């Protein structure tokens, strides 16, 4: 594939940025890839594994001359880092971000953005429970959705160009209004994460069931929750703090619904439980038919080895 | 490996029974395997795929002459089926079950059990979201825990024999008091399932987010919940109705904890959220170190294919 940008600057070098670096390099989509990370350890790792061509201690240095700047830091620090880099952005450059929340990013980043720069907020719906520069892999975005929430008056050519980059990395693209994005994500990602964190926390506290038992007998169900609850704490703290309204809204719906099922259990209403559990099966089928998950039992994960 | 039982009768031919049949056959652990299923379609499938040597419409016929009878029906019908088979059980036979709840099974099954028969309640902590006779596979129990909750006065030889069968299928065995079993399972399996069902139900109801969006953008988190919420509705209805007290107890703890986190989000208490999310990470590490899950990112599941 041919080069889409001259110089891409990745601000923050975690799972998403390191996957982008690998995918961009694998497909030859940029002439040069540079990065910035706050931690000296991350910077050293990035150089050691050849993730980027150059790495900078200051974000302002990394963005110089870049025609694409990608903000890959936690949502809570996007505003501050934009303030730092703004005076150093090249005129005509595109700035995008990969934050899981869009309204808060637009409010924090927008005011600092120079007029001569195209700011196009984005969000790849892709990730794993692992983090850091070593966690990335080039195929992370294949067949995943990369949503853009362009602001009014966005330059169509700049939007097409950044879309062509992520599509070349294997992603599907779509556009959405920022507030609707935040509501959809509260349903399909943010609230499920909070619930998984909560359930794992409950198990950890329960004194009548030992910590050892929780780990040893972690059956299907809980085991899957622990994967989600192993996600990056800083990223998720910021998600909940910045998508507060939508998360609290969906949490309210969730609690109502949970109380209804809890009451059915208490009253012994088997018919209601059976009907409910039958309906939820259909959604799984839809997701598999849409190519968004595998139909292999238990995700087709490897059977844990046993020493014989 | 050598034969452990002469004739094994599997009562019910779903995921667990069909996995047992395959594992027993693969390792030559029984002289003969017979089965019973209520549905004619299941019986026809079992014969077609060669799951068992013979299949019976009536459970009472299947158990005749069997030295091991395994009850693999939903917890809610264990009592009734035991009443049917009791007069036909061979003296000296062992009867075990694979129900996810133990106190209710003991209360329902125990009173019907003839004195000359060894009743040893059991529960394999293994399964997938799929059900029926075609869903089974021989390695389902490898490195999984198979818990037994033996009653007072259980014959040690009969217990050792049934343990040796499930160990030969690859399982690890352990003993536990029935009520403690039900509490542990409420934490590591039953409550997580109810929560997953609830979250998927909420997404399904939400009119401001379309059904199509929920499926299309099902991100990590929600996607995993849908797998759990695709589990067998009859089995899970019975689990909640029969492990009512422990499930309601853990649900109460869960809701308390969720309200605390919800309040932290509302108040903007980032420090509390960050600390909480950091602690839950450690549990995941414990489960992986205990060999109960893979450390591959996203369970190592296959990247969905994309038409190019």
UniProtKB/TrEMBL annotation, chains A, B:
Biological processes, Gene Ontology terms: tyrosine biosynthetic process
Gene Ontology MF, one: prephenate dehydrogenase (NADP+) activity
Coiled coil: none
Pathway assigned in UniProt: Amino-acid biosynthesis; L-tyrosine biosynthesis; (4-hydroxyphenyl)pyruvate from prephenate (NAD(+) route): step 1/1
Broad EC category: oxidoreductase
Transferase as UniProt keyword: no
Keyword line: Amino-acid biosynthesis, Aromatic amino acid biosynthesis, NAD, Oxidoreductase, Tyrosine biosynthesis
Any Pfam family matching the protein: PDH_C
EC number per UniProt: 1.3.1.12
Domain of life: Bacteria
Annotated transmembrane regions: none
Reaction(s) catalysed by this chain's protein: prephenate + NAD(+) = 3-(4-hydroxyphenyl)pyruvate + CO2 + NADH
Domain Prephenate/arogenate dehydrogenase: 6-295
Protein family: Belongs to the prephenate/arogenate dehydrogenase family.
Protein name per Swiss-Prot or TrEMBL: prephenate dehydrogenase
Species lineage: Bacteria, Pseudomonadati, Pseudomonadota, Alphaproteobacteria, Rhodobacterales
């Amino acid at each position: 594939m041919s080069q889409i940008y001259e110089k891409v600057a990745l601000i923050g070098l975690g799972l998403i940025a390191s996957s982008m670096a690998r995918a961009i390099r694998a497909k030859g989509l940029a002439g040069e890839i540079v990065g910035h990370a706050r931690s000296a350890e991350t910077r050293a790792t990035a150089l050691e594994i050849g993730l980027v061509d150059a790495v900078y201690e200051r974000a302002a240095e990394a963005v110089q001359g870049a025609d694409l700047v990608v903000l890959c830091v936690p949502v809570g620090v996007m505003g501050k880092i934009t303030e730092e880099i703004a005076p150093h952005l090249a005129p005509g450059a595109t700035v995008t971000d990969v934050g899981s929340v869009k309204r808060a990013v637009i409010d924090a980043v927008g005011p600092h953005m120079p007029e001569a720069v195209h700011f196009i907020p984005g969000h790849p719906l892709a990730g794993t429970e692992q983090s850091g520069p070593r966690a990335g892999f080039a195929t992370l975005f294949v067949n995943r959705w990369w949503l853009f929430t362009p602001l009014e008056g966005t330059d169509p050519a700049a939007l097409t160009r950044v879309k062509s980059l992520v599509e070349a990395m294997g992603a599907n693209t779509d556009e959405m209004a920022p507030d609707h994005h935040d509501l959809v994500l509260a349903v399909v990602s943010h609230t499920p994460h909070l619930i998984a964190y909560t359930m794992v926390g409950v198990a950890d506290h329960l004194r009548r069931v030992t910590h050892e038992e929780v780990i040893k007998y972690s059956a299907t169900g809980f085991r899957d929750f622990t994967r989600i609850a192993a996600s990056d704490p800083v990223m998720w703290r910021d998600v909940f703090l910045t998508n507060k309204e939508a998360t609290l809204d969906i949490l309210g719906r969730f609690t109502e619904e949970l109380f209804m099922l809890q009451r059915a259990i208490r009253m012994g209403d088997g018919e209601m439980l059976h009907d409910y559990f039958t309906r939820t099966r259909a959604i799984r089928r839809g997701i598999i038919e849409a190519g968004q998950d595998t139909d292999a039992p238990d995700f087709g994960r490897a059977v844990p080895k046993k020493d014989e």
